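Handoff note, outgoing to incoming analyst
You'll be picking up this chain. Sequence as last confirmed:
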Amino acid sequence: MAWTETNIPNLNNKTIVVTGANSGIGFEAVKLFAKNGAEVVMACRSTERGQRAFDDIKAEHPQASLTLMSLDLASFQSIRAFSKQLHERFQKIDILLNNAGIMMTPFGVTVDGIEQQQAVNHFGHFLLTSLVFDLIKNADQPRIVNIASIAHKYGKMNFDNLFYQNGKGYNSMTAYGRSKLENLLFTYELARRVEAAGLDIKVLAAHPGVATTNLGSRIHAKWYYKVFKVFTSSLSQDAYMGSLPGVRAAVDPDAQNGTYYGPDGFNEMKGNPVVVSSNKRSHDKDAQARLWTLSEQLTNSTFQI
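Most recent structure output, in case you need it:
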């Protein structure tokens, strides 16, 4: 039988942090979590858009327990400030849904000197996860869910020019694919480490298929991408359906550590959430370990398991 929102268990007494919570699949996930009794922290880069999303959810679900907080994943300083506020306000985190992302933007680097797609999509979430890992360990059978993409298949790691120095070799699509491949490399490495440490924590990944969201609002691409988008529109799904793989990973009692979820339709572009497989490059253990070490160095954070 298809997994649907009716399979979501009671989430009373669960604290869930969702990054990129004000729109798209993050917004839909927040609604589902809050609807089922969770206390949800809405981590948003824009507090103005976050407040609108907060108000919309409250209008639809007046009983929703929501906390709106500012988080800019392109800034390590902002991430550290967000972590500090979480530690001041919460004793535990049951589920961390690393959902926020940017897609196919022009070449640019963050204030910390990192190519912006990788900064937001991977390195920011790596730092956030490391900083709040103690709160995650305080919960009973907690989970970390990283939102990846079928675009990881286009990504390749090049540690000699990881951030496209001065824009050398930069392509917005392949750079996005690299950032999404990094999501999976991180997921599998962290899953292995928590298992080796004997911790009762599940680390999982999910992708939304081809979901109609505003993720591509800042897309920088050639004309053929727009043609491709029109061609594939009939194969895409709305943000609600796109949120279900991540939600299932977050709450499915049968989920196994290190599992990857996605839609069950043609080429995993749309459909109901099921267990799927990622490509061979995402399972490269040398790349996983190398990215982990580099992530600790660049974020100046030792990830204490």
